[in-house]
Amino acid sequence: MVLQVKSDYIHMQPSTLASATAQAPSNIAFVKYWGKTDHDLTLPQNPSISMSLDSLYTTTTVTFSDSYTQDEVWIAAPNEPSQQVTGTKATRVIQQLDRIRQLNSESRRAKVESVNNFPSGVGIASSASAFAALTLATTTALNMTLTPTELSRLTRLGGSGSATRSIFGGYVEWLTGDDQSSVAQQLFPESYWQLSDVIAIISTAEKKVSSLEGHELAETSPFYQTRLTDLPRRLKVVRHALEQRDITLLGAELEPEALSLHTVAMTCVPPVFYPMTETFWLLDELRAWSKEGVEVYGTMDAGPNVHCICQKSDAEKIKEKLNQLPYVQQVLVAHAGGGARIV
Ligand code: DP6
């Protein structure tokens, strides 16, 4: 039997699908980004340095199709079903899709499905891994070939500055500059020095003031300029400590750096308090443990949880000690890891 194919069927365009899945790591900043010179372009006031984390990541699939009539954003927390998000969260994702679509004269709508393997909104930069994964998945789905540097610039434009660094693995610096030059670069690969981030979760509550608002308020603190004046020295020491693999030198900068950011935040108008009482109790403990011989140094991002930075060989010991503290709800262990990749 010969199949009769209707001519109008032959001329119909098939629904074209384009899809890619990317995975990107979270990162912990040793020298923190706080405040911008340009809010629209996400240009930072100061360079920042971070370590990409191997076991905390976001996996994002972006699918473009002719058959979609609107963009959809779905996010899943660990062990929970995926939920469609709307409002500001979805808008920020769709704006990044639009930015990339514009570069390609692309008109198809997309479905974004994102899964974090760690709780979001607890001071572990979930938007860093999310925006890095989103940018890599979207550009790959649209067949764009970008260098990691170009990718970090495009990620930066998504508005989560720390995501700029999550494109790279290991130890990463995000440079100040203009729209072209403010990109991330790898200082050392993860294999250069195996450090760990043992994260003590003190609270899983969503932070009341987003980093986005925190950056905008920074300049209202009388201590902000003092922070910026001291940062070139701190950056130099941290780069040198990484180069020398010197945990004592690095550690001496970590807690003061976090406290410098939080002093600024707490003295903004209106003030922003990210740490909790327990955060300070834990910093005291870490100082005592270091004196006893297990070197470990605390740092916090925009949240109450303490990232305990130590040599990989000490990570399990630190985890055990943290688990004995009644106010520590959960301990997550991550090591220096690779950058964003297609999976
Ligand atoms: C305190 O604007 O990158 O973590 O988008 O919420 O991840 P999110 O924040 P972002 O600011 C991050 C600020 C910081 C310090 C840092 O990671 O450098």
Task: Write down how many β-strands occur, each being a DSSP E stretch of 2 or more residues.
Answer: 14
- Strand fraction equals 25-35%
Q: What is the helical fraction, as a range of percent? A: 25-40%
Distance between the termini: 44 Å
* Alpha plus pi helix count: 10
State mean pLDDT (0 to 100 scale): 93
The helix/strand series, from N terminus to C terminus, equals HEEEEEEHEHHHEEEHHHHEEHEE
Describe this structure in words.
By secondary structure, the chain is an alpha+beta fold. It is 37% helix and 25% strand. The chain is built from 10 helices and 14 strands. Strands 1, 4, 5, 6, 7, 8, 9 and 14 form an 8-stranded mixed sheet that branches. Helix 3 crosses helix 4 (148-157). The chain is globular, with a radius of gyration of 21 Å. The model is unreliable at 1-14 (pLDDT under 50). Bound molecules: ligand DP6.
